[in-house]
Specification:
With about 150 residues, the chain is α+β, with helices and mostly antiparallel strands. It has two domains: about 40 residues, Winged helix-like DNA-binding domain superfamily/Winged helix DNA-binding domain (Arc Repressor Mutant, subunit A); about 80 residues, Alpha-Beta Plaits. Helix content is about 35%, strand content about 20%. The chain has five helices and four strands; from the N terminus they run αααβαββαβ. It has a four-stranded antiparallel sheet, with helices on one face. Helix 1 crosses helix 2 and helix 2 crosses helix 3.
Length: about 150
């Protein structure tokens, strides 16, 4: 990936619906040249896909939490995925360093919905305990790939 590719990615991160011509005028290339580069980055996996960024409130999600999950014994990432991906309120899961085995991002309609989700997480017999942090205010969130 060269500097022009990085510039193209920057344009796409700011506006994923920008036309190849618009991006091209920003990076000094023709629209077909931008398309070829985007197609190449998609084929190589550097661009994993395109998605819409949706306001959680538009989906009725007014409550957000991060839940640390502590398992008894070792737990594999595959087991974490299997046990957590079926819970609809779970929108992200990461393995983490430190005492917890996983950090789970929950988006829910209300506190009762968060509580039901955490109880569903705890139904796994290997879960020893959880610790939840409720998001009070979303201040900002950077689009993925824009740090640094």
């Amino acid at each position: 990936m060269d500097e022009v590719d990085r510039d193209i990615l920057g344009h796409l991160l700011r506006d994923g619906r920008a036309s190849f011509a618009e991006i091209g005028s920003g990076v000094g290339l023709s629209a077909p040249a931008v398309k070829r580069r985007v197609d190449r980055m998609r084929a190589s996996g550097e661009i994993a896909g395109f998605t819409a960024v949706v306001d959680p409130a538009a989906l009725g999600w007014s409550t957000e939490a991060y839940v640390e999950v502590y398992y008894r014994g070792n737990v594999s990432p595959a087991e974490l995925r299997r046990s957590l991906e079926t819970i609809p309120q779970v929108v992200g899961v990461w393995t983490v360093s430190g005492d917890a085995d996983a950090l789970v991002h929950v988006m829910a309609r209300n506190m009762a919905d968060v509580e039901a989700c955490v109880e569903q997480v705890r139904q796994n017999m290997r879960v020893d305990r959880t610790r939840s942090s409720i998001v009070m205010t979303r201040l900002f969130e950077r689009p993925r790939g824009t740090a640094g």
